[in-house]
Design a protein that fits this description.
Blueprint (H helix, E strand, L loop, with lengths): L1 H36 L5 H27 L3 H24 L6 H21 L1
Helix pairs in contact: 1-2, 2-3, 2-4, 3-4
């Protein structure tokens, strides 16, 4: 019974943190695109920056969700990372009309999103 109440109590904060993660991702990707446009970075550097953005967004999402949860922080971080990646995958699927990336890239991105969120939850 206690777990059910905890899940209900966390539903809205999870949504707010998830939206915040995507706002952060959007802002940092916009900055990366601007720097690429200005010629300050190569496409390879921007590819690395995208992975760093995933780590930062995941870490902060897991951190804030862990702070809100108070207990089982790493599990809440895991949930945030999985939700973040799942939505990224779904939007990418819709925009590309299928999975265009190789499975190794998808798996790597999933692991980055999940482990950075778990780390954020553990630190909180």
């Amino acid at each position: 019974m206690e777990r059910t109440q905890e899940k209900r109590r966390m539903a809205v904060p999870i949504f707010v943190v998830l939206i915040s993660m995507y706002i952060m991702t959007f802002a940092l990707l916009l900055l990366s695109a601007f720097l690429l446009y200005k010629g300050m970075f190569s496409e390879k550097a921007v590819s690395v920056m995208i992975q760093i953005i995933y780590v930062l967004s995941g870490f902060f999402g897991g951190f804030f969700c862990g702070k809100l949860a108070g207990s089982r922080k790493y599990l809440w971080g895991l949930l945030m990372g999985a939700l973040y990646f799942g939505i990224l995958l779904f939007v990418g699927f819709l925009m590309n009309g299928g999975f265009s990336d190789d499975p190794i890239h998808i798996l790597t991105t999933m692991l980055i999103c999940i482990f950075s969120s778990v780390a954020g939850g553990m630190v909180s």
